[in-house]
Write a structure and sequence with these properties.
- The chain is α/β, with parallel strands linked by helices.
- The protein has one domain: Rossmann fold (3-Layer(aba) Sandwich), CATH 3.40.50.
- The chain is built from 13 helices and 14 strands.
- α4 runs parallel beside α6 and α6 runs parallel beside α7.
């Protein structure tokens, strides 16, 4: 049973969504143990989470430098910990374009790491997991996608395929003889945007961003010279790709809602979309960021990027009805919070870490 004040394991907790979710968990009274190998994150994010959460809460979070692909290190790290009541699994390589160039790295890291994690959790006696999945599992399905939309068909990139394969692993686990002991919640979320309203924590990828909005923000702040828009000949209103963008704080609250759902249900296999239900094009997002920042964002049109689809946005009725969750932030608020983070931290966490 999961309850307030209990112990949650968060893989990838130093990362973008992981750090925001850790903050929400601490504010709700949970104790949090983070596993993160630092490949695309920094411990500075958690130092700031501790500051935002307050003096009492900082005593309830610990971090361990662990690569999930190292099963020996993973098991030895979990063994001495207090009982773990639930795991939120964020840790993964996540760039669509990069996955098409380095597929073996993505399959090894994302799938093998998850199998190791599930085995380690089972040994630890923790059989509640919330998995960070993605809208990419829907491939190029008709929009909006519901949780009943077929998955695994028409996925255009290895990243999305790893998410789909992990979902299938979790589904098989749920259907196995021991599956009645597991509470498994799959959260298929769409395109995270924004930051904590304080501007203290946000998205800070190592190297050039692979996703649209952190790149847009870095152009706006002068860290990057120009943005390339990958294709303007898609069958969309302005020819650029359309996506469902959701505020990272809404996503963090979605994970808390999923925790409470597992607490109520005890066991089972559950799937939810987390999005706004509305799509915005690349050019619309650039315009929204120009409005938030008051700056012109230089961009050029390039060729389509391998692995991209034209349109993807969510049907969100199930999350609203069963989790009591729905996105609250508008696209303007997403961009305003993103700009607050980026303008306050033009080099991301690097300045504080150096």
């Amino acid at each position: 049973m999961i309850g307030q004040g209990r112990h949650v394991l968060v893989t990838g907790g130093q990362g973008y969504i992981g750090s925001h979710t850790t903050l929400v968990l601490l504010q709700e009274g949970y104790s949090v143990t983070i596993l993160d190998n630092g490949v695309n994150s920094t411990n500075e994010s958690i130092e700031r989470v501790k500051s935002l959460a307050g003096e009492e809460a900082r005593q309830r979070v610990t971090c361990h430098d662990v690569d999930l692909c190292d099963s020996v290190s993973l098991d030895s790290t979990l063994a001495p910990l207090p009982d773990v009541d639930a795991c939120i699994h964020f840790a993964a390589l996540k760039a669509v374009g990069e996955s098409t160039r380095e597929p073996l790295r993505y399959y090894q890291n994302n799938i093998s790491g998850t199998i190791n994690l599930l085995s380690a959790l089972d040994k630890k006696g923790c059989r509640n997991i919330i998995f960070s999945s993605s809208a990419t599992v829907y491939g190029s399905a008709d929009m909006p996608v519901t949780e009943e939309t077929p998955v695994g068909v028409g996925i255009t990139n290895p990243y999305g395929k790893t998410k789909y394969m992990i979902e299938e692993i979790l589904r098989d686990l749920s259907s196995s003889p021991s599956g009645s002991e597991w509470g498994i919640c799959i959260l298929r979320y769409f395109n995270p945007v924004g930051s904590h309203p304080s501007g203290r924590i946000g998205e800070d990828p190592n190297g050039p961003p692979n996703n649209l909005m952190p790149y847009v923000a870095q152009v706006a702040v002068g860290r990057r010279e120009s943005l390339t828009v990958f294709g303007n000949d898609y069958p969309t209103p302005d020819g650029t790709g359309v996506r469902d963008y959701v505020h990272v704080m809404d996503l963090a609250e979605g994970h808390l809602a999923a925790m409470k759902h597992l607490q109520e249900q005890q066991a089972g296999y559950f799937v939810f979309n987390l999005g706004t239900g509305h799509g915005f094009s690349v050019l619309e997002m650039i315009a929204a960021m120009e409005k938030a920042s008051g700056r012109t964002i230089k961009h050029t049109i390039g060729e389509r990027r391998p692995g991209d689809i034209a349109t993807c946005f969510a049907a969100t009725d199930k999350a609203r009805e069963e989790l009591g969750w729905q996105a609250r932030f508008s696209i303007d608020e997403m961009c305003e919070d993103l700009w607050r983070w980026q303008s306050n931290n033009p080099q991301g966490y690097a300045a504080a870490s150096s």
